[in-house]
From TrEMBL:
Keywords, sorted A to Z: Chaperone, Cytoplasm, Stress response
A Pfam cross-reference name: GrpE
Entry keyword Cytoplasm: yes
Gene: grpE
Protein name from the UniProt record: Protein GrpE
Superkingdom field: Bacteria
Family to which the UniProt record says this protein belongs: Belongs to the GrpE family.
Amino acid sequence: MTDEPRETTERPQTEPTPQSPEPVAETPQPQTEQPEASAAPTQAEAAETSAAAAAAEEQPAPTLEERVAQLEAQIADLTAQLAQARQEARENWDKFVRERADLENFRKRRERDIADRVLQQKKALLNKLLEVMDNLDRALAYQDSLDRQGLQQTLRLVAWQMNELIRSEGLTPVPTVGEQFNPYIHEAVEAVEDSEKPEGIVVEEVRKGYKLSDETLRPARVKVTVAASNKEREQPGGEGEA
C-alpha cells in the first residue's frame, strides 16, 4: 500500500484587533484632617479652675468685725466722693453767677455807651443849630435898623447856613418840580389839569421833602398834573354827542 499524501488545509490567520487602553483610576490622595478646636477646657485651665475653687473653699468667711470695717471703708469712700461732687457743684454755681453778673454788666455798659454816643451826637447837632439861631436872632434884633435889602440878605445867609447844616448831617432835598410823581418821596396835595404836560408831572412844591441817605425822612408835598377833562378838550362852540 502506498501512502497518499494528505492535503492539509490551512486556515487564514486573522490579525488581532487593537484594544483601546483602559482608563487608569486616579489614586485618592490622603486628606490631612485639621485638628478641631476643642470646646472643652484644656487641662491647664481645668487645673487653674480647680485650684481657685479649692483656694476659695479654704479661705475662711469674713468675721463680723471685718465685714463692718469693709462697709465703713465703702461709706467713707462714698462720703468723700459726695463731698467732692458738692464742691464741684458749688464751684460751677459760683462760676455761673460770676459770668451772669459779667454779662449783665456788659449789657448795661453797652447801653450806657450807646446812650452817651447818642447824647454826643445830639449835642453836636444842637450846637450847629444854635449858630443858625444866633444869626436869626441878630437879624430880628436889627430888623428896624436894616433896610429891606439888608434884611433879605441876612435871611438868605441864615437859609444858606441852615442848608449847609442839614447837608452836613446827610440830609438832601427831594427833587420836585418837573419830576415824575413818585409816591415814595412825594405826597400829592392837589391835582392840576394841564393839557400841555403829560399826566403825573410835579408842577409845584408846597412843602420841601428830605431824604436821609437812601431813606425818605419826609416826603415833599406837591401839586401834580392830571389829564384834561373832555369838556376842556372840546372846541369852542362844539356840541357833545347826544
